[in-house]
Amino acid sequence: MEKRQRNRSILIIAAIEVILMVAALMVGPPDSGSSSIKEVMRDAVLHEKEKVYLLGRLAVNPGLISAFTVTGIILVLALIIRIFIIPRFQTIPGKFQMLLEQAVGMFDGLAKSNSPHRNKFLGVYVFTAGTYIFIGTLFELLGVQVVTTEGASISLPAPLADINGAIALGVMSYGVILAGGLISNGVKGVLNTLKDFSLPISMSFRLFGALLSGALVTELVYYYTNLSFVLPVIVGVLFTLLHALIQAYVLTMLTALFYGEVSE
């Protein structure tokens, strides 16, 4: 009986895949009146055309709207967790409590292992930055639609897929490192930090390039293949999840590492 049900499920899945493949092959190439792939990728980087109105007046990059939205989501979640969940923590933790404690412990351990002397603020910062990168990267999977200034509908990208957001976070992380060196070692700590003048640039473009690459690869797959019903979804989700985990870890690790060096 179980074998029959299993075979039936396999046949149903195979039939669905065949139907999707046939439907995909019947889809013609992109409309000749639409933007070329060069224009699509250029605008994904520079946002020269796809701008949205902020407060109904100011035209801004969609990444700024994403940044405000993600920040609001994180603040609301933080309030809910602090007011309703943390007071109910138990000695024997549940699944959510264990997940939250492991996340906090991971970033706290990252701060302590790289900066044994001054790590309280560092632990808070790397946890906040890592959470923002992770949630902000996953945000683009929601596909929140907004209307551009030209009347077209687009999905909001990840905040750090905008070069301005990536630079802001990279410079902020460098400022935390600089402050750690100043508080711990005074002028000597500042000079040690300033020697790595390329650090904010490398942090910013590492974030920007990694997060943007997923979007560009998805655009290429969608634009050049007729199998656009399934393949772009798989590619987009895989790239987004990998970048969310990897980039959150890389930036926080680099920040903790350099902070520990200048504050030693």
List the helices and strands and how they pair.
Blueprint: H1 2-26, H2 37-46, E1 52-54, E2 58-60, H3 62-85, H4 95-114, H5 120-139, E3 145-147, E4 153-155, H6 163-194, H7 199-224, H8 231-262
Helix pairs in contact: 2-7, 3-5, 4-5, 4-8, 5-8, 6-7, 6-8, 7-8
Question: What can you tell me about this protein's structure?
Answer:
The structure is a single chain. It is built from 8 helices and 4 strands, in the order H-H-E-E-H-H-H-E-E-H-H-H. The chain has one domain (about 50-260). The protein has helices spanning about 1-25, 35-45, 60-85, 95-115, 120-140, 165-195, 200-225, 230-260, and strands at about 50-55, 60, 145, 155. It is globular, with a radius of gyration of 23 Å. The protein is mainly alpha-helical and about 260 residues long. The strands form 2 sheets. The protein has a two-stranded antiparallel ribbon with strand order 1-2. A two-stranded antiparallel ribbon has the order 3-4.
Beta-strand residue fraction? under 5%
End-to-end span in angstroms?
Answer: 67 Å
Radius of gyration based on Cα positions = 23 Å
Shape: globular
Q: Got a strand count? A: 4
Determine the mean pLDDT. 79
Number of domains: 1
Percent range of helical residues: over 70%
Q: Order of strands across the biggest sheet?
A: 1-2
Structural class per helix/strand content?
mainly alpha
What profile does the largest beta sheet have? Answer: 2 strands, antiparallel
Please mark out the parts with pLDDT under 50 across 5 or more consecutive residues, or reply none: 27-33
| Helix-strand sequence | HHEEHHHEEHHH
Tally of alpha and pi helices: 8
